[in-house]
Amino acid sequence: MFGAMLLVGGCSLVPAWHQPDLLLASAWTAEKPAASDSRPGAAWWHEFHSPELDALMQRGLDDNYTLKAAISRIDQARASAQVVGAGQYPILSLGGNSQRQNNYGTTEKRSVFAEATYEVDFWGKQRAAADSAKALANASVFDAQTLRMTLSADIANAYFQVLSLQDRLRLAQSIATDAEQVLDLVQVQASQGAVSNLEVEQQRNALQTFQAALPTLRQQRDQALYQLAILVGAPPEGFRLGQSGLQQVPVPQPSAGLPVGLLRQRPDIQAAEARLQSANFDVGVARAAFLPNLSLDLLGGVDTLTGSGIWSAITTLGQPVFAGGQLSGQLRLDKAHVQELTASYRESVIEALQDVETQLSAAHELDNSYRINHAAVDSAREAARLAQVRYRLGSTDFQTLLIVERTQYQAEDTLLQVRLLHLQAAVGLFRALGGDFCAANIAASVIPATSSSTSVQANHP
């Protein structure tokens, strides 16, 4: 029996690993904007040419507490993998005893000894368990990278939102100032009997409407600023930005590449794959539990009083016979877990594809929207200028002036909001393409599996 076991020693019962089949298109459906020179895995925020954003991003990636917690989870997972992997090696211990007996005279006995205990891993059970734990540790690395990918996008979005709200505040204040000047003009005309008090009150209402927007915009700006502070790991008290608006921030166009490239660009997909690999190893552990196991317990030492040697060698062979369905139930559970994670992996892939398609569409359509709204602002500004000139000359009525005044404010405020959405769509596309994640950059962080299995099988026997 021992000879047969030695012949098959080192054999693995882990199913062959084949990546699940995926249906990937050869190109993106959404119309792609003209791409810049950005490369996947690079520090994409440099494309916005904002030193302040660069500094905030570095601070956030260094000091964000949620990211620090994720990094600590990596250490926990690696320590757990170390614990599980220890089962592959012998347990060595040193001991001793001292014994005194009063049995027809005092008898004293002392000894020191070394003991080794080892479970022979004929079926690869311990190795498969270790590889499963290592795969989970790798998943924690990719989870942290996914969080980093999301965090960097959140920092950029929050930063642009603060700057946009500052722009909108300046616009609202500027429009309110213009409305106040018009009110002064209307009041002079009313005092001369050229217009009625109705026009005065209408213009005062317009001014108050513009002024009423200021507190809301300030509150929104402060909320976004404090949220940005939390993202970069800073207390909100005294947190301020140096840049005052979005005027000098360009809108980059990331290169989307091909759909198949997304499988290695997204850390969440890598995490799903690592968990599937772990479950695949668990099936091997469950299969090996049905087979005999052999453990060796060796002890050697010396009696310090007599100088004689003491030793023992115990070989234990065990074969599961009946466990009330525990072993078969565990195997069924692990196989079902593989099927579950296979579905989760495929879903993570199509969700990532949908994410890129959505951001590509947003980038393209918001580019068109910004151009149209910019032209609308030019028209609204010219209409307001002409309306004020004609009103001063008495060739147009007050209602027309009031309408074009509000139209100009709405057009300019809409343009600022579209510009923010345009920038955030670029950020969203960078994020959807994996952010600054690059598998080559974290190769040293990923624990290599020791199994001889080479590829992921979606359907195992």
Q: Any overview of this molecule?
A:
This protein is 59% helix and 10% strand. The two termini are 27 Å apart. A hairpin with a 5-residue loop joins strand 3 and strand 4. By secondary structure, it is an alpha+beta fold. The N terminus and C terminus are likely disordered. The chain has a single domain, classed as Up-down Bundle (Outer membrane efflux proteins (OEP)), CATH 1.20.1600. The protein has a 4-stranded antiparallel sheet with strand order 1-2-3-4, with no helix packed on it.
Briefly, what is this?
The chain is α+β, with helices and mostly antiparallel strands. Helix content is 59%, strand content 10%.
Order of helices and strands: HHHEEHHHHEEHH
Shape: elongated
State the CATH architecture: Up-down Bundle
Instruction: Assign the CATH topology.
Output: Outer membrane efflux proteins (OEP)
**Structural classification:** alpha+beta
